[in-house]
Every structure is written in C-alpha cells, then in structure tokens.
Amino acid sequence: MIGVQEEAVIQALGTDERYLALVARRSRLAWLLSAIIFFAYVAYLLLIAFDKALLGTPIAGGVTSWGIPIGLGLILLAIALTGVYVAHANRHHDGLMTEILKDYGA
C-alpha cells in the first residue's frame, strides 16, 4: 500500500526534469543494447538459414565446427551486454536517482 507521502513523491518525480532526463537516457541505453543483441541473433539465424555448411565446417580439421564458437559467442555477447548495462547503471543512474530522491526527502 502506497502512503500519502510516497504518492506525493511519485507525483513530483513525474514532473522533475532530472528524473525525466534519467529515464530517457536509461531507455536509450536499453534500446541500443537490445538492438545490438537482436541484430546479432538475427544474423546468426540468417547464417543458419542460408549457410549451414559454414556452421558445420570443422575448425582447423578438428571435430569442433564453426557453429559452436559462434553460438557460444552469441551467448557471451548477451552476458557482456548485460554487464555493460549493470555497470553503466551502477556508475551513473543509481547515483543520480539517489540525488533526486534526496531532494524529495525519500
């Protein structure tokens, strides 16, 4: 249950320019990182659809094919992009949000 004071803080935050700028910046970063992983995944799917032979080609004559490291790279890219978002949020967004909330006594 949200109290009267919390409701007032929520209302005030909705009009605070710093908060709106923070939300916009955070949203842009999230969309950028989402677009990167989306296009990487689509590229992988297109590679599967149109060049299966490449993914099945052994690396240096061994038993491991190119599909394994490429698929693993896609998974690692997703983990890395998550790390980028968390590091950026911890470094920039959290501090600014704390400052904004202090101004409203929250």
Determine the N-to-C terminus distance: 16 Å
The count of β-strands is: 0
Output the structural class: mainly alpha
Q: Considering DSSP H and I runs of 4 or more, what fraction of the residues is helical?
A: over 70%
For the largest beta-sheet, the strand count, sense and barrel status come to: none
Rough shape? rod-shaped
Question: Low-confidence spans: pLDDT under 50, at least 5 residues?
Answer: none
Counting structural domains, the number is 1
| Average pLDDT taken over every residue | 90
Tell me the β content. under 5%
- Helix-strand sequence: HHHH
How large is the radius of gyration?
22 Å
The number of helical segments is 4
Question: How would you describe this structure to a colleague?
Answer:
The chain has four helices and no strands. The mean pLDDT is 90. It starts with a helix and ends with a helix. The longest helix is centred in the last third of the chain and has 37 residues, at 67-103. It has 106 residues and is mainly alpha-helical. The chain has helices at residues 4-13, 17-50, 52-56, 67-103.
Q: What's this model, at a glance?
A:
By secondary structure, the protein is an all-alpha fold. It has four helices and no strands.
Please specify the SSE layout and strand pairing.
Layout: H1 4-13, H2 17-50, H3 52-56, H4 67-103
Helix pairs in contact: 2-4
List the keywords.
mainly alpha, 0% strand
